Each structure stands twice: as C-alpha cells, then as structure tokens.
C-alpha cells in the first residue's frame, strides 16, 4: 500500500515510538492520522486528529473504531513493561501486560478489521520486539507477551489475507525512548524505526527486522536452547560493555 494518502490510526501516539509513527505518517503524506492515547491531552503533534483510546478497555476500543471508520492503516504500538518475572513476580502484573500487549492489540485488530476490509484491505503494523525470541530476569513477563503477540500476528495474518489486509510484524532491539532510558547502549532512533516499518508496509513485507540486534537474535533461533542462551548471554554482555 502507499503511505501517501492513507488514513492511519496510531496507538500510544503521545510519546516515544507512537509519536514518531504519527509524525512520520504526517510527513510522508498520509491524508489523515488519528493519534490516540489514554490521555489525549498529552498528544502535542500538529496535523493529527486526536482520539482517546485505552487499548486494554474493550469499550474504548469499540468507540475508537466507531469514530474512525475510514482507517486504512492501523499501527498497534501501545504497550507496557512492568519488569516482572513469571515465577516470583506479581501475577496481576503479568496479566496486565498480557491484557495490553496481546489482548489489547488483538482487540484493536478485531474491531478495525471490518473497516480495513471496507477500505480496500489496507494494512496493520504490530510493533513487537526481539524479546519475542528471548527472555531475561526482570523481563520475562514482557518476553511472554511479545512471544504471544508474535504468534497472534502470524495467526491474524493468515485470517485476514482473504480480505487483502497486509499484517506486518516489526521487531527491534532498543529504541531511544523513555522505556529504554536506563540502557547506555546504541538504540535506534524512533523516526528511523517508524520509517523502516512504513517502508516495509509499502514493500508488502510480512516482517521488518528494524535493527542489527533484531536481525542477530532471529538468526540464532535454529540453535539448541542451551547454545541459544549462551550466545545471548555473550551478546548481552558485549552490548552492555559497550
């Protein structure tokens, strides 16, 4: 699809990657950009149409779909990370991440799929993570949700193919946002991530590996679990050592 003249809706558009997606969509000629956030007053971009949206609230998702029936590109960006482990961490926190990062994205797809079909098929971008493929202490709930979101993305891609909807999974390591502020390592600029994702949509790509980190991690997936974990330990040590 052509980004120019598209009608896009971006979740979590008040900061970070979502704000960068909304800004680049405007700059690349989208006819309309719905910029959504739980607190719509925090969206500060010119040239967008602001909508309130909490993707973990089905009623809010339904209201957004009713308010934006002309959408041809859905960018599922909003997400949370609670820093929770699976065995000893708060089960409520694990559930909260799942509700947002998996069921929130799926709810958006379910509500907007009919509009995408009416508007020619269009495209969906699901912002995932290289952590769909590996875990780590203090981030295993996040790993769980991103792995589940990857599987969900692959499933809905098959289900929506008949209506002509492209579903693009976007993986990255770390982006230069508030969520990654504590990591003193190289990070992809949010605008570069947005451009890589939108370029992938225009190319009809099912998957975008937006940076070297995501490409390296995926390349190790054929390894046995013990070899994969050892390779990831070495890579993480080298990353944090600079």
UniProtKB/TrEMBL annotation:
Pfam families: adh_short. SUPFAM superfamilies: NAD(P)-binding Rossmann-fold domains. Keywords: Oxidoreductase. InterPro entries: NAD(P)-bd_dom_sf, SDR_fam. The keyword Oxidoreductase applies. Belongs to the short-chain dehydrogenases/reductases (SDR) family. This is SDR family oxidoreductase.
């Amino acid at each position: 699809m052509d980004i120019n003249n598209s009608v896009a809706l971006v979740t979590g558009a008040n900061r970070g990657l979502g704000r960068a997606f909304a800004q680049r969509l405007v700059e690349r000629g989208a006819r309309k950009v719905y910029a959504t956030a739980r607190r719509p007053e925090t969206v500060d971009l010119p040239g967008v149409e602001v909508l309130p949206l909490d993707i973990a609230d089905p009623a809010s998702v339904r209201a957004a779909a009713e308010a934006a029936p002309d959408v041809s590109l859905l960018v599922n960006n909003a997400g949370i990370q609670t820093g929770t482990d699976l065995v000893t961490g708060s089960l409520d926190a694990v559930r909260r991440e799942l509700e947002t990062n998996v069921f929130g994205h799926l709810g958006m797809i379910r509500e907007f799929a009919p509009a995408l079909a009416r508007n020619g098929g269009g495209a969906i971008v699901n912002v995932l993570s290289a952590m769909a493929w590996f875990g780590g202490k203090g981030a295993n709930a996040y790993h769980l949700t991103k792995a589940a979101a990857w599987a969900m993305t692959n499933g809905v891609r098959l289900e929506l193919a008949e209506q002509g909807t492209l579903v693009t999974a976007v993986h990255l390591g770390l982006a230069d946002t508030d969520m990654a502020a504590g990591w003193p390592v190289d990070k992809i600029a949010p605008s570069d991530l947005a451009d890589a994702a939108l370029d992938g949509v225009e190319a009809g790509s099912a998957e975008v590996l937006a940076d070297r980190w995501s490409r390296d991690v995926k390349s190790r997936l054929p390894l046995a679990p013990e070899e994969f974990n050892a390779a990831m330990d070495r890579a993480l040590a080298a990353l944090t050592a600079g």
